[in-house]
Design a protein that fits this description.
Blueprint: H1 17-39, E1 43-44, E2 47-51, H2 52-59, H3 63-71, E3 78-80, E4 83-87, H4 88-97
Antiparallel strand pairs: 1-2, 2-4, 3-4
Length: 102
């Protein structure tokens, strides 16, 4: 059957390859958005802050070891309202300073 523009009318189903490709693209986009949201940390004056849990995971040390680093003055931190926060840039500087070429 032809429509008023002379084009053939077709019923599009979910088995249609173009529809499958469209939904596959949507799934990939959703995955990227979820990843971006999971990694999102708001900034304060352009600076991102991490919790002790996040820092201990990044440095692969226990939270107790992190506490020792604070006590020894090896790692800068901010204590606010019962929370210990670390500037992400400070943590990166520590990692960069300790980096050794193979």
């Amino acid at each position: 059957m032809l429509d008023y523009n002379g084009m053939e009318n077709k019923v599009i189903t979910k088995e249609n390859e173009q529809i499958k490709a469209f939904f596959c693209s949507l799934d990939k986009m959703l995955d990227k958005i979820e990843t971006a949201l999971a990694d999102y940390r708001p900034t304060l004056k352009g600076e991102r802050f991490l919790t002790d849990t996040q820092v201990s995971e990044r440095l692969k040390v226990s939270r107790r070891t992190l506490q020792e680093y604070r006590t020894e003055g090896r790692i800068p931190y901010t204590h606010f309202g019962g929370k210990t926060l670390y500037r992400e840039s400070d943590i990166q500087k520590i990692l960069d300073k300790g980096y050794r070429e193979a």
